[in-house]
Design brief:
Shape: elongated
Number of strands: 0
Helix content: 40-55%
Largest sheet: none
Low-confidence stretches: none
Strand content: under 5%
Order of helices and strands: HHHHH
Number of helices: 5
Distance between the termini: 71 Å
Structural class: mainly alpha
Length: about 90
């Protein structure tokens, strides 16, 4: 018979193992990290918008702003296709 696995450092998890459901927040907010390089002027603009929005909502993060901006741009691209600003920017 082999040794049993160590329980050191598991705390309450030893009682919940296999029974834990992901929290609602974990299920909804599954995210992946990405790194993108942006010009300093664009980052300065992002900072200004972030500061303005934080005056109204202290929980907002720069990632939230970038996510919404990217989603809106991609939706416009899908809807307008070759007439979208994104398409025109990279093809003209």
């Amino acid at each position: 018979m082999g040794k049993r696995p160590t329980l050191k450092g598991k705390g309450v998890e030893i009682f919940l193992e296999g029974k834990r459901k992901p929290s609602k927040k974990e299920a909804i907010l599954k995210k992946e990290k990405g790194t993108f390089y942006l010009p300093p002027s664009l980052l300065a603009s992002l900072d200004k918008v972030w500061i303005t929005l934080r005056n109204h909502n202290r929980k907002i993060r720069k990632s939230d702003i970038v996510k919404v901006a990217l989603e809106e741009s991609l939706k416009r691209f899908e809807k307008e296709d070759k007439e979208s600003g994104l398409f025109k920017h990279f093809t003209s």
